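Homework help board

Subject: predicted structure for assignment chain

Our instructor gave us this sequence and asked us to write out the predicted structure in token form, then describe one feature. I got the tokens but I'm not sure how to describe them. Can anyone check?
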Amino acid sequence: MDAQAWLVVNALPGMGALRIAQLLARQPQWPEGWLAALPSRAASELRLWLEHPDRSPLQKVIDETQAWQQSGPSRHVLHRDHPAWPALLNELPDPPVVLWAQGDLSALEGPKLAVVGTRRPTGEGTHNAQTFARDLARRGWCVVSGMALGVDGVAQRATLNAGGRTIAVLGCGVDVIYPASHRDLHEQLSSLPGGLVVSEHPPGTLARPAFFPRRNRIVTGLSLGTLVVEATEKSGSLVSARLTLEQNRELFVLPGSLHNVQARGCLALLRQGSAHLACSVDDIISDLGHWAGEFIPPDDAMQQTLQTSAEKPLEQESLPDSVSGDSLPDSLLASLSATPTPIDLLVHATGVAVSDCQQRLLMLELEGWVAQQAGGWVRLPRP
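My token output:
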């Protein structure tokens, strides 16, 4: 089947990814087998397109896709018969029928790891997302995420800065920038080597809340495993964690402070015994060793690429440096770090009265030493 046939199948009324996957399992011949196996309405629409494409509404999907491809560079339509189609997606019960892609298709090569997390990461979470993404890139792994605010965007920027490969799976058309504040990231993913934006929705499709949970199955489905950097107990990242386990992929989480509300989802996954504790990229690669023969390249396979990427500086938010107590403007800073500390714990640790502690924190915030985040107060990195 060619791209036009797959586009038509994807647009058939009353079908959807799951029903199409079930039909594909019967290996129908195109188009006779499809006409015989499809429900009556879908079969009638397909027959109309085959016999009179100019009268069929299905032809509009083809025409619009061709116009989109011709309007800019590096625009692709991926399907099961395309040489760049990622085979791991075929293991899903409801894989996408078509993926519209914009960018560098080489991002689909080699092993992939999904990196997800909260949209409001702490300073420590931001640092961890950057560090793991950079290290994965330098080990030849592709970072898959959703270009969302927070951990997603941080990890994908760090990957590109390291010269690595990263795929953004959108819950809208590949030409729709969501969130709008990630316009620059979208441009980089669409144009830089190693960057790729994909979606199962046609170009021009606006973001809708229902699209994002469905998008997550593709993020995890492209990947050998998923790393949850930070997540609250009700974070959408836990949807990705559940999908990872349902897809029989490996789930990894970073440990966090007991007092960090942004880490409680990760701690819950560890407590349930459903995830691997990851303290470094080496931990992840070691646990994925059983995939090595098929997906993970030998250590020297990516050296030529990595020699150049390793030299690129990574723009990252560094953690507070170790500063002696004598050089700090307030002794409260010695009890703060990049991990949020609730004010009651700060009061308990320092013996300072609550009102005095609040006043001093306010002054430190005005001077740029501290900031209040979800879960408490953090010390900011110094220039």
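Reply (TA_rk): Your tokens look well-formed. For the description, you could write something like this. The first strand starts at residue 75 and ends at 78. That's the kind of observation they're looking for.
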